[in-house]
Amino acid sequence: MTKAILCSSDDSRAWEIRTSLADVDVAIERQYSSSSTLLSALASLPVDEIDLVVIDSVVEPMPVWDIARHVAGVMPSVAVLTVVDNPVHDDYVRAMDAGVRGILRYPLGYDDVSQKVTSALGWAQTVRSAVTRQLSDAEAEGTGGRMLTLCSAKGGAGSSTLTVHLARAAQAAAPNRRVVVVDLDHQKPDFSILLNVPQHRTITDLLPVVDELTSRQLDDVLYTSDEGYAVLFGPVHGEESELLSAQAVRTILGTLRSHFDIVIVDIGSVLGEANASAVEMADEVCIVSTCDVLSLRGARRINQLWTRLGLVPADAAKVILNRTDKRSDIQPEAAKKIVGLPVISPHVPETRRMLELAVNRRDPGLAGPAWAQKISELGVALGVVPAAGLDVVETRRGRRKRRRTADAQQELARSEAGQGSLEFLGIITLIGLIAAIGFQLVLVGMTWTFAANAANEGARAAAVSQSAERAARSHTPAAWQDGMSVRQGGGEVTVTLDTPLLVNISDDFRFTIPASAGVVREP
Predict the structure, then answer these.
(1) CB–CB of 492/517 below 8 Å?
(2) Among candidates 427, 484, 426, 440, which has minimal Cα distance to 458?
(3) 396 or 13: whose pLDDT is higher?
(4) Which helix (H) or strand (E) holds 435?
(5) 366 DSSP assignment
(6) Is the distance from CB of 29 to CB of 3 less than 8 angstroms?
(7) What digits encode the pLDDT tens for the residues 199-238?
(8) Which spans in 42-190 are helix H?
(9) Closest to 494 measured CA to CA, from 523, 446, 462
(10) Where are the alpha helices (DSSP H) in 129-214?
(11) Helices (H), 265-325
């Protein structure tokens, strides 16, 4: 008997489909009520034991054609059929694009079901002979894009900043992957401010076409940054968030997962009906908290609320400690005990100055390489940055660092050469100054000696009634005679000499030295 898988969100329709398939010897081995559960189970399904996948158009949250495209890509040797109410020409075109082997018209008829099932099984049998049964690791993991949801424990904890920088790190580490960030913080959507981008189109522009959402309509609303990742902005006005129903958000996020490899959603600190869907659909849910009691207790209360609402299992959420600092009163180890939830390692350090610069100038790249490295390490722990990609980023940074180091060394060598010349010139100048001061002191000492000698000679001449001035000048060198004065009186001769200056800057710096000698009259 042919084995099949059924995906339908309507129990009554699912029962009718099972009955109609059983009439043509098709047994439903497994049944899924949502696209999320089907996509999550694809990696573990025994492909060689499944012949047919039947997808009802009444399925949530993803559109039937996106689900079919995923299934056909992950299980290329399995035929896919869809159940559509009164299909029209556009449905057949979409089915062909999605790789669907046939459309079953609802209400189901025996002849139609038998013909479409037989044709699909024949095609599958032919394909299986040419397609290898061993899928690559990427196909084995093909559950759609990985979705990470970030929530703030309280306002200002930093979930919006981390969301943007995680997207940058994910895109930089793997440029071939498609990354999108979604702003579901409806009360204060800040992505346009962080990226300095006007909000021309927002998530509310998708609401009129949410039931028939296509990749082209998504591309019309998404903003693609210069670094390659896409952004879906939140509503311009807070009251517009009331227009977003849970079903609409589930459809939008489901479609994004089908078109992107990484989906990172920021839901802010206020939980509503719409962003609760982002928590429920996420592969990983994290609460961003700072190391203070209010934030840590807020993280606990948010997790308890999610558990009561059935959005996540108990203790399934994890905590990202943001702005950690060795000077903080509460350190990460103590924070783990307070919050009572698993804490992601590594922690995000305090870099207020650089982040303020990046936010105020609306350029995330200004946060600096040290911050980018920490975010990349966090992205690896969260599964949005591949470890190999981080190695590549580190290698590139290492090359840039080596180039900067070499340039710095050359610049240092040049500066050291110039500095050596300046130091040599300074030393020579200092030695010359010391020598000049020493020589000037010698001149002072010589002046004192010449003044005393001249006074003694003048006193001896006066003692024999000769000219004391003539005798004093005749025993004084010519260089000291300028400004020399000789006075006689009171039984003594006084000689005053000016010290010669090595550099005659000003008379104020000239030293005047007096010397006296008593006159002893000869009998």
Answers:
(1) yes
(2) 484
(3) 13
(4) helix 387-463
(5) G
(6) yes
(7) 778 898 998 888 778 888 888 999 999 899 999 998 888 7
(8) 64-74, 89-98, 110-128, 137-140, 159-173
(9) 462
(10) 137-140, 159-173, 191-195
(11) 273-281, 293-309
